[in-house]
Every structure is written in C-alpha cells, then in structure tokens.
Write a structure and sequence with these properties.
single chain, seven-stranded antiparallel beta sheet, five-stranded mixed beta sheet
Length: 401
C-alpha cells in the first residue's frame, strides 16, 4: 500500500509537499483504516482547493513519477523524462525535481526516490525495513549519484555492477533492474511489479487491454459492472465484447451495449457511462486481484454526486475492497466532504502562497483558534465559508459574512 508521497519543484509545487496516507490518531471511522503490520493505512485521500491551486499538479506529479519508473528503461535515452520544474523562478528552473514514495509490500516498508531533470537522473535511492509502528532502522538497497551506483549488500549484488554501464542518464536504475530477468534482482523486480500493478487503471493499460481483461481474465467482471451501472441506469441490459480484425491486420475489441434487446456501439453511451466503465473495470481488478492505487483527477467530472459517494464507499468497504486498494482523487464536489463519509485525515486542501507555491495540508492538521477541527463538524459548509482556506475569492467570502 502507498504510505506517503513527497514531491518538490514540480510545476506549481516549489517547496516540498507531502501527501500522507498513514492514519492519524483520530477515532472516527476506524473501520475504514487498513492494518498493515500494526500501521494504520488510509484507503482514500481526497484533495480540494480553488482553481489553479495545484490539485491537478499533485496528481500529475505522482503519475509522472510512476510513469518514469515504468517506462524510462523502455524509452532508453530517446525521450525526455516526465519532469517539469517550477517555471516562474529562475533558480528553481535550473534545479532537479525531487520525487519520493513510501509503500509496503509483504510486511516490508520501502523508501524510494530520485532527483531528475528532463534529461538527467541526478540521484536515486532505495531503502527498506520491517513495516512496524515502532520505527526500525532503514537498510540501504542502493544509492546512485549521477553514474556512480553503490549497493547496500555488496556481496549479494556483486553481479549487478556489470549492468551499471548500461544504465543511461535518463534511465532509472529501478526501471532497468526491474525489467531484468537476471539473478539477484528480486528486490528490484518486486518493487517494480508493485509500481506497474498498482497503477494498472491509470495509464499503464490501454482501453483495448482493459476490455481484453474484462472479456478473458475476469469472467464475472461484466456481470458486476451491469449490476453496478443499473444502480444509476436501469436501462442498460448487457455489455457485449467482440473481437475484430482491422484493415491493418491487427485484432481489436469492440464494446456494445444492449438496450431493449438491441445491440448498439458502446461509444454512443454518455460520457459519464463510458467513464464509469473504465473506472469500474480498474476498481474491480483492484478490489479482487491487485493491491492498487487508482489516481483520478477531477473524479466527479461527468458523474452524478451520488456516484462519487458510491465509489468512495466501495474503497472504504473491506468486504468489497478485498485487496485493500486505495483511491487518490481531486474534486470540487462537496458531497463526500462530510464527516459521515470521510475521516479528517482523508481530506486534504491546496492553496498557493505569495510566491505562487502550492501548499498542501490535511484537515486533521488544520487548527482553528489553536484548536483542532472537531470530527462532528460540517466540513462542507465550513469549507465554503472559507474556514479552512483553499478556496478562491477568500476576501469576498469574508466580506459577505
């Protein structure tokens, strides 16, 4: 599970910000919290804020970090890394962007990060330790400074030094070794596999591949989707997937929906229905097969507010979310900004400071008159009233009171 994400010098993010999915001490909705080796982890993180406050940049930063891990080996030195520094500051434009994540796999906690410009990996590192609420000492797996790579266990990873010269300046070592089938790469392969699987529904697989997963690997996925969509649209009777060969000789899949016994191309369905189809396919696979992280910017776009509430509740429901997958999303919809639906530490806000830097803070950390926000407060109304910041036109809001 993803425990924490840190980023510095990316788009509107100047100073380092941290999105923390480790549960705080709050007692509300303890049933939402997942126990990972004695550490409580949150299944949901929501991000609210005004337009141009940097919400989407946080999502983009996490997606870019994971994209670089998955693809920098495959792209080699041909393409630029997905890195965009803060552009409105002369010094920061020259500095590398910094990414770091903390996550758990099979009872161990990993710390992995790197600093990079678009055409160079300045540094890269990975550590691990036993996952425990009592902090244990980190163990070095590797550290990289430009082209110099040092392994924590010099004996076990002795053979890996042979590959050092093959790691290009725009190629992450984790990406390279995670793809290797050589001996002594198990630690790298397991971490690389977690990254690629964890982001299954975001950008790693195409729509065509998602359809193939539905048709051939997960036999009851279609029936579950029909049941789910009928909660909101009882007129959709069935989904049919057909394989066809294009003029270029390549096989593709086409999806059809059934209404009143008639078959229609699925792409004539509403944008909301097609978006739900993609979301649900990923969610089903996450809930039943993979421990994944669904990353969604403006998740409520084209969706009814009650559908957003339903999606959030599914991630919170351990009987549905069997693999303890997680949801990170941005939204302007306040329906789940409610103490009945979310814990305080699952709610985050963004706003910019005088320098134009995005700040990120949790409702659980927010203090009003030096007192923490009560768990029984109406979060949505107080947010709209400007009590938590992170809204546009704050002076106008205050002036109307």
């Amino acid at each position: 599970m993803l425990l924490q994400f840190k980023v510095k010098n990316f788009k509107s993010i100047g100073d380092e910000i941290t999105l923390d999915l480790v549960a705080g001490s709050g007692s509300e909705h303890r049933q939402f919290v997942v126990d990972e080796g004695g550490v409580g982890v949150l299944p949901v993180a929501s991000i609210y804020g005004g337009n141009a406050s940097g919400k989407s940049n946080i999502i983009d930063a996490l997606s870019s970090m994971l994209h670089n891990i998955c693809y920098s080996y495959k792209n080699g030195s041909k393409d630029f890394l997905h890195v965009t520094p803060f552009l409105y500051d002369h010094e920061l434009r020259r500095q590398p962007t910094e990414f770091e994540i903390f996550f758990s796999i099979n009872g161990r906690e990993y710390q992995y990060g790197y600093k990079a410009t678009r055409d160079n990996i300045a540094s890269e590192w990975m550590y691990d330790r036993k996952l425990s609420k009592n902090n244990t000492q980190w163990r070095l797996i590797f550290e990289r400074r430009d082209k110099e790579i040092a392994y924590g266990n010099a004996v076990a990873y002795q053979r890996l030094k042979e590959y050092n010269g093959l790691v290009g300046s725009k190629m992450l070592l984790l990406s390279f070794l995670g793809n290797m089938q050589a001996n002594n790469t198990e630690a790298f392969s397991s971490v690389y596999e977690w990254v690629t699987q964890a982001t299954f529904g975001n950008w790693v697989h195409s729509d065509n591949e998602l359809i193939e997963e539905m048709q051939y690997r997960y036999e009851d996925l279609k029936a579950n989707f029909i049941e789910f969509i009928n909660e909101f649209d009882p007129c959709l009777e069935d989904i049919i997937v057909e394989k066809e060969t294009g003029k270029d000789g390549k096989e593709r899949y086409r999806v059809f929906s059934v209404h009143n016994g008639e078959k229609y191309p699925f792409d004539i369905e509403s944008d909301g229905t097609t978006k739900l189809f993609r979301y649900f396919t990923s969610m089903y696979i996450f809930f039943n097969n993979l421990n994944g992280v669904l990353i969604a910017d403006e998740i409520d776009s084209q969706l009814h507010p009650l559908i957003l509430r339903r999606i959030v509740s599914m991630f919170h429901n351990k009987e549905i979310n069997k693999k303890s997958s997680q949801l990170i999303f941005t939204s302007h919809n306040l329906i789940v900004l409610d103490n009945r639906d979310m814990r305080r530490d699952e709610i985050w806000f963004t706003e910019k400071d005088d320098r134009g830097f995005t700040n990120l803070y949790s409702l659980a950390e927010f203090k009003a008159n030096k007192k923490e926000i009560r768990a029984d407060l109406n979060y949505g109304n107080n947010y709209l009233a400007g009590k938590f910041g992170a809204i546009p036109y704050l002076n106008l809001v205050e002036g109307d009171q």
